[in-house]
Amino acid sequence: MENQYIEDDESLISLCHQLSKASILTVDTEFVRTRTLYPRLGLLQVCDGNVVALIDPISIEDLGPFWALLTDPSIEKVLHACSEDLEVFLTQANCRPENLIDSQIMMSFLGHGLSLGYAAMVKHYLDIDLDKSDSRTDWMKRPLTASQIEYAGADVEYLYLVYPMLKKELTQTPWFEAVQQETALMIERKFTPIDDSQLYLNVKMSWRLNAKQLNTLKFLTQWRYQQAKKRDLPISFVAKDQTIIGVAQTLPKNVGVMAGIEGVDVLDIRHKGKAMLAVLKQAEQVDEEQYPEKIKRLDEYPGYKQTFKKVKAFIANIAKENEKQVEVFASKKQINQFLSWHYQLNVESIEADKIDVLRDWRLTFFGEQLLAQAESNFSQL
User: Fold this and answer.
1) Active site residue 28
2) Could you tell me if 127 and 205 lie in one domain?
């Protein structure tokens, strides 16, 4: 295949005109994310079977022609383990891809485990050992070395060769549509806006707090997230979980008291103590009737452990009948999501069609049966 390095707008337009005629494109990204909230895009890779192109987003002013390819529903896009790539597309251009499929998900439905790496997939299908020594490259640094360019190109070149084999194998099973739906679900999750008013639910140990403390934690997590977005910092760089939990529990009146709270990070208090005190004052203005409800722990719900085992065994049996690992059918997190919804624990407003095991292919294979069993409180499982 021809190799191209694209580093100006005119060349990108010409390349994308050529790629727009393709039926399949394999795509990958390289990025850096060490001290930022958002990934910093260092390179875009694409292959149409004739050309392997590396697109330099640092040199190019307008990546619009490339984003247009990703949103073209007539072109099938293939990526491997695309969760972080989707985040790049979202944060760089709010570009939601159309007609995209994830080869790692394809591999999971073919019995290769949930998270088979790209190199292992290439080895399995092409018997080629990829050199991964450049995987920790600083992709923002220029110029790129020859080995870095070769490494980046291989991520789309071999995927283009593997994909027809994968697709042929998968279309001989009943699972191709399920893979498409799983990829679509991943995209949906990535492009669903974050509700910062609910972030407090994700903080470890938040279940220990009473309603007033939870209200304070809610304000602190919103403030932390907004600061992280504004300054493009990892959330923990604004304030760590143990700091905001400690502050919410103690409700200190000054920075001195705040610094003495067990478990807080001293640097958090030094740099953000006054800002957090201002947040506490905002939280104090909320009426008690508007406080969040105390968090109910699923693992403390009566009979939870026995019910979880029953549900997992039920799903595992159906997965085995279909020669699949139970984790492909439902992870622990997905089972817990369903049980939290069933028991109405902290998810009262979630509709059934937003529960993973009650939608798409899972609903057909076991979700409807599971829902019927839930109505009898799983007594027949």
Assistant:
1) yes
2) no
